[in-house]
Design a protein that fits this description.
The chain has nine helices and 17 strands. It has 397 residues and is α+β, with helices and mostly antiparallel strands. The strands form four sheets. It has a six-stranded mixed sheet with strand order 4-3-2-1-5-6. A five-stranded antiparallel sheet has the order 11-10-12-15-16. A four-stranded mixed sheet has the order 7-8-9-17, with helices on one face. Helix 1 packs across helix 5 and helix 8 runs antiparallel to helix 9.
Length: 397
């Protein structure tokens, strides 16, 4: 079983992107440990490490599990303390200006890995370099995301037929999950960031959309249990209620993010107006979002448009407001860039961004849409790859 599933050209391109970001941050060697970045640099998840040596030497792959893997410059190990011996066998350079994924690693493991490689100084943090490298997708990555987007759309087009009178939000979510898995969804919803957890997405009905969550998502929800306080909470779907559906789009290992709003019966004019404002904001930000544009300019535009429509109090929440209007999407659901008022990121060609200008209307629920876009250098603005119908669809049709 081959360890590396990427083509040689794709692997070389990704390594060069990581090396470029490492050099910009003064990091010459590093040990990659997280599942997301192991996947990024090999095309598979395994238990082990990737060592990026200094001086342009080839990576070394340390594999604990699964056994019987094959690949150049690969060593099977049982524990990190074997790495130094294996590096000597391969004549690989020892660490210098050494980095670890300190945004992910427990302190005790960071200490152990430094000791295993006989690195006495404090390690540098390679996490920002990896995040920046992954923020600009390769052509191969974009192909996988377009496939996910097309399958994601097919699932959303089936949602109106899944509703049955008397359903609860969680019952509807389970039916969507079933259809999604049959369409090929992997079920995995990788989330970057500290203390972030979610299952296969959110179905938020009525007042539950206004329930604050400890997680840094655009919308919260109380959830079914305090052990994972986000999302559907068993609310019965009743007339006059908005139902916001934000479900998993991971069909290829590369995700898309899409939200659509449905209704039981009809919604009041204020909710319909807010939903149309969300569509208008997405359209305007997609037009603006070109290489060289500051991410915070997109946020400012969205907030100004919401305020101009008298919706500032409901923008990105009501009782609790999210501090962003979009985020990068890829192997994880919240990558760079973040579309937020203090973001220093400048958009680049082939960023992939989910824009989600949402509103919570008291006594009705959440309305608005979310689409995934690819930043291009063309005159037409960003390319939308989640093309399900955007208007509010009533379950009573």
């Amino acid at each position: 079983m081959d360890l590396i599933l990427l083509s040689p050209d794709e692997l070389a391109l990704r390594l060069s992107k990581v090396r470029e970001q490492m050099a910009a941050q003064g990091i010459e060697s590093a040990l990659i440990t997280s599942n997301a970045n192991l996947y990024y640099l090999t095309g598979r998840v395994f238990s082990g490490f990737i060592y990026l040596p200094p001086m342009g030497a080839e990576p070394v792959y340390f594999v604990k599990r699964p056994v019987h893997m094959h690949g150049q410059r690969m060593a099977e190990i049982r524990k990190p303390e074997q790495m130094l011996e294996e590096l000597a066998k391969l004549a690989a350079p020892a660490p210098h200006a050494f980095g670890l994924e300190l945004n992910h690693l427990p302190y005790s493991m960071a200490q152990r890995l430094c000791a295993a490689l006989e690195w006495a100084d404090a390690p540098l943090n390679i996490s920002p370099a990896l995040d920046l490298a992954r923020a600009v997708k390769t052509d191969h990555e974009l192909t996988l995301q377009r496939i996910s987007g097309a399958k994601h759309e097919r699932v959303y087009r089936k949602i109106p037929q899944l509703f049955q009178p008397g359903m609860s939000d969680i019952e509807l979510q389970i039916e969507i999950e079933r259809v999604s898995r049959l369409e090929g969804c992997l079920g995995q919803f990788r989330v970057a960031g500290e203390y972030m957890e979610i299952y296969m997405g959110n179905v938020l009905a009525g007042e539950n959309a206004d329930a604050p969550s400890p997680y840094d998502f655009a919308m919260g929800g109380a959830g079914l249990d305090p052990s994972i306080p986000v999302g559907a909470n068993g609310t019965l779907l009743k007339p006059g209620m908005a139902v916001m559906i934000d479900m998993n789009g991971d069909f290829t290992g590369y995700m898309t993010d899409m939200t659509r709003t449905f209704a039981v019966g009809t919604l009041p004019d204020e909710a319909m107006h807010a939903h149309q404002t969300s569509i208008d904001i997405c359209r305007e930000l997609a037009r603006m979002g070109k290489p060289g544009v500051e991410a915070r300019a997109l946020y400012d535009c969205a907030a100004e448009m919401a305020a101009a429509q008298g919706l500032a109090d409901y923008f990105m929440g009501h009782r609790q407001h999210a501090g962003f209007v979009g985020h990068g999407v890829g192997i994880e659901i919240n990558e760079l860039p973040v579309i937020a008022p203090r973001s220093k990121y400048v958009l680049q060609e082939h960023n992939v961004i989910a824009l989600e200008p949402k509103f919570v209307i008291p006594n009705v629920g959440a309305v608005g849409i979310e689409n995934t876009y690819i930043v291009t250098d063309g005159d037409s603005g960003m390319e939308c790859i989640t093309r399900a119908p955007q208007e509010i669809i009533s379950f009573d049709r």
